[in-house]
């Protein structure tokens, strides 16, 4: 079974620098540090086969397994016998992975100093240990018979082969692009590393004493899976699934993936006999990541703007769809249907110039004068910035024409409109409104400054510049703005 959340489009703002650093670190460890393991292993195994170690150690190992091997001692002993009979080097690998036996062997309790061949065996074992110790993986991988913090951390960056490495890195990039954006660089690194440690500790607890070792980033990546589910919670996300021959894209709450992912790993762990995949570590990583993400959400450390980005995009898309439907009704003069959709959009979402302009058109096409006054006021009260100013200016011009210049807008709103028109170069209309306000509402705060700004739109000493400054001095003689106007005229001469 394969389930992959669909990643976001990569941008400079959400570029996953820590994820990239982790990928590079994994590649460096594999190609620069683990790359010599194959040759070192072959040299060590060749020495073991040429020496007399096998004749001494394997009989002792069989006896030791019967005395100390635990419930699977018989199976391990049988496997070693079969490997030896077939001339396979796997028997040596099994022996070398059994740390309790090696500890007893090196302490002199398995092959004792009283043994006839002890000195020659000791010399060959020491030389073999030196050759075997050159294997980076063996000396740094997580061993199920040893609790070592350094091994736990190193194992998270080591892999058993190129396919293992590439597969893990693909998942790391997909999940890292999402989870790093939701947590930020430092918090993402912490969740990744702590989640990987949690995965390793769960595997150690369940496999303690077993021969073999654990390598791979999959435990830490599984922690990102658990964190992803909890961080997005009930937000609906899109993901791809593939089960046997069935595959599709689905949209569902992210939290639904948590029991699916975790259940699959537990199922595999319980029933996938003979697999070399550490499904127990995967399950431990998912739980660790989910718990860490729950702590992050409790402390409100997540980046909610990033998490809400998909929902906001969907909302915008839905608004556009509904608006297009309303405009279709409006084009057919189906006013009631259009107004019902538009009023719902206006009340549910953030203020939209297109929606409010369409509501004005509903009243205009219906020849509803009171409705026009109300809809025009509702639309023109939007913030006057950017391209919106031009759209609202067109609405105002139509509104004034439709009502025969009998507009019903508050003086403060008319002042805001006039100042916006000044910014877009509609000076003539701005001048008419500002002078009308000066005649009827001379005490309106900000009015003299608006007139001064209008004057400064024109070249110094030009007729409009002089005329506007003179008007300020005439209408507001006691204001500081009039003093500035007087000074500017005096400077111009």
Automatic annotation (TrEMBL):
The keyword Membrane applies. GO terms for molecular function: serine-type endopeptidase activity. It is a multi-pass membrane protein. Keywords: Hydrolase, Membrane, Protease, Transmembrane, Transmembrane helix. The chain crosses the membrane at residues 15-33, 152-179, 186-206, 212-232, 239-261, 281-299. Belongs to the peptidase S54 family. Residues 150-296 form the Peptidase S54 rhomboid domain. One of its GO terms (cellular component) is membrane. The keyword Cytoplasm does not apply. It comes from Tahibacter soli. It is found in: Membrane. This is Rhomboid family intramembrane serine protease. Pfam families: Rhomboid.
């Amino acid at each position: 079974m394969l389930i992959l959340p669909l990643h976001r489009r990569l941008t400079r703002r959400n570029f996953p620098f820590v994820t990239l650093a982790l990928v590079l670190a994994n590649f460096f460890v594999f190609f620069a540090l683990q790359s010599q393991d194959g040759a070192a292993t072959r040299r060590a195994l060749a020495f073991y086969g040429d020496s007399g170690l096998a004749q001494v150690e394997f009989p002792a190992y069989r006896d030791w397994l019967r005395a100390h091997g635990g419930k699977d001692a018989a199976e391990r002993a049988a496997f070693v016998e079969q490997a030896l009979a077939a001339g396979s080097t796997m028997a040596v690998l099994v022996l070398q992975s059994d740390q309790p036996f090696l500890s007893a062997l090196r302490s002199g309790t398995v092959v004792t100093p009283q043994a006839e061949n002890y000195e020659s065996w000791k010399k060959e074992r020491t030389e073999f240990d030196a050759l075997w110790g050159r294997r980076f993986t063996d000396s740094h991988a997580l061993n199920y018979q040893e609790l070592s913090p350094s091994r736990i951390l190193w194992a998270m960056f080591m892999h058993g082969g190129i396919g293992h490495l590439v597969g893990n890195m693909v998942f790391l990039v997909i999940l890292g692009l999402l989870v790093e954006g939701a947590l930020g660089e430092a918090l993402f690194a912490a969740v990744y590393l702590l989640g990987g440690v949690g995965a390793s500790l769960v595997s150690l607890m369940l496999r303690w004493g077993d021969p073999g070792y654990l390598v791979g980033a999959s435990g830490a990546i599984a922690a990102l899976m658990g964190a992803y589910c909890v961080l997005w919670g009930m937000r609906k996300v899109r993901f791809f699934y593939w089960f046997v021959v069935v595959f599709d894209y689905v949209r569902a709450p992210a939290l639904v993936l948590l029991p699916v992912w975790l259940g699959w790993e537990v199922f595999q762990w319980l029933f996938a006999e003979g697999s070399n995949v550490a499904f127990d570590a995967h399950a431990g990583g998912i739980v660790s990541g989910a718990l860490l993400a729950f702590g992050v959400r409790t402390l409100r450390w997540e980046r909610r703007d990033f998490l809400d980005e998909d929902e906001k995009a969907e909302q915008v898309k839905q608004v556009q769809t509904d608006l297009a439907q309303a405009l279709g009704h409006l084009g057919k003069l189906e006013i009631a249907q259009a107004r019902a959709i538009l009023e719902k959009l206006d009340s549910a979402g953030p203020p939209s110039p297109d929606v409010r302009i369409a509501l004005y058109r509903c009243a205009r096409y219906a020849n509803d004068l009171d409705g026009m006054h109300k809809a025009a006021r509702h639309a023109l009260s939007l913030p006057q910035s950017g391209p919106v100013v031009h759209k609202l200016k067109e609405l105002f011009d139509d509104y004034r024409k439709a009502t025969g210049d009998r507009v019903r807008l508050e003086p403060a709103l008319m002042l805001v409109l006039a100042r916006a028109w000044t910014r877009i170069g509609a000076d003539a209309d701005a001048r008419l409104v500002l002078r009308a306000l000066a005649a009827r509402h001379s005490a309106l705060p900000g009015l003299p400054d608006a007139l001064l700004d209008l004057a400064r739109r024109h070249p110094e000493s030009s007729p409009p510049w002089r005329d506007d400054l003179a008007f300020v001095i005439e209408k507001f003689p006691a204001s500081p703005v009039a003093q500035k106007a007087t000074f500017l005229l005096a400077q111009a001469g």
